[in-house]
Amino acid sequence: MSFTSEEHAKPKSFGVWPLEFNSSSCVGQGLITNATDYVWISCTTSLHRGRILRNEQRAPVSVTIELSNRDALDGPRSLNPDYGHIGDGDYVVSPSTGEHEIWFGLEDGEWPRRANAAVVRYDSSTLEYKGVHIHPSLKYLAWLAYDPTHQRAYGSEWEGVEELSVFDANQMNWSNETIRIDNIPSDSNITNASGINYIQGADVKDDILYLMTDDFKSSLFLLELQKYKTTVVDVQHLGLGNEREGIAILDSYLFSFGNRWRTW
After folding, report:
1. C-alpha separations of 254 from 74, 132, 148 in Å
2. CA-based nearest residue to 21, from 71, 83, 64
3. d(CA 44, CA 87)
4. What is the pLDDT of residue 190?
5. d(C-alpha 22, C-alpha 36), whole Å
């Protein structure tokens, strides 16, 4: 499978900043930025807000945490006590209310997942729980990415992904329609006969959906977003090692969250 400039516009390239974090208090899952130096981190069961610290050349060097919510699952568990995994997410300015929120994919805490997956929302300033929107059938939702152009969020299963599930940010509900993924390359390390494997992080920038997979190559899929379909226009192998989780794009950098576990 080849990707030519005649078929698709070449997306902007980014410097990659691997952010590795895993401790007894935080197993890293999700990473969010909002075009400022603020950053939000999901640690499976807790949430944290911090700032990116930079050097004199404005390159990122570290993250400092300013606020934490270690009871982030209390709200979702009031609806279903099986919820136990907050994945990757995105920063959303609600098109209906104008409120600034952070949205994440939410899953059952056990494997295999049994509870229906959901979008879970928190206030971006206070990290206060705002609500859950449960998918009617999905069991896996390791990532969520918001598309401001079409005012909707995307998510998917974890393996064999051929289509995207869609959450309507205006109606605040899951759409009955899915969006197919065209031009999926044939590569036994990152895809199979049924689609893309092991997606764990995502972000949207300039109508391109970036999908990070947890494989030995740290593969990054670039998808051109359209209203009714999306097309793979490039695949980059970053070779970062460790288990790759959430990603976020800020300025000329792609931040890739790793939790220092081995890849599959």
Report:
1. 31, 28, 19
2. 64
3. 6
4. 63
5. 24
Task: Give the Cα separation of 48 and 136 in Å (integer).
Answer: 29
How far apart, in whole angstroms, are the C-alpha atoms of residue 42 and residue 68? Answer: 10
- Tell me if 200 sits within 8 A of 142, measured CB to CB: yes
Element spanning 77, H or E:
helix 74-79
Q: What letter represents residue 246's amino acid?
A: G
Bridge partners (DSSP) of residue 54 are: 60
Assign 261 a pLDDT band (cuts: 50, 70, 90). Answer: low
Cα 187 to chain centroid distance, Å, stands at 22
> Rg of the Cα trace of the chain?
17
pLDDT in tens, 219-245: 999 999 999 999 999 999 998 887 899
Q: Which of 108, 99, 101 is nearest to 47 (CA)?
A: 101
**What does the alpha-carbon distance between residue 120 and residue 148 come to, in Å, rounded to a whole number?**
18
Token digits for 214? 């947890």
DSSP state of 261: P
Residue 128's nearest CA partner among 102, 91, 156 is 102
What's the residue count for the chain? 264
Cis amide bond preceding 81, omega within 30: no
- CA separation for the pair 88, 179 (Å, rounded): 20
* C-alpha closest to that of 40 among 110, 117, 116, 100: 100
CA distances to 104, 153, 158, 216, 225 from 116, rounded to whole Å, are 14, 17, 14, 29, 26
Six-digit token string for 55: 């050097």
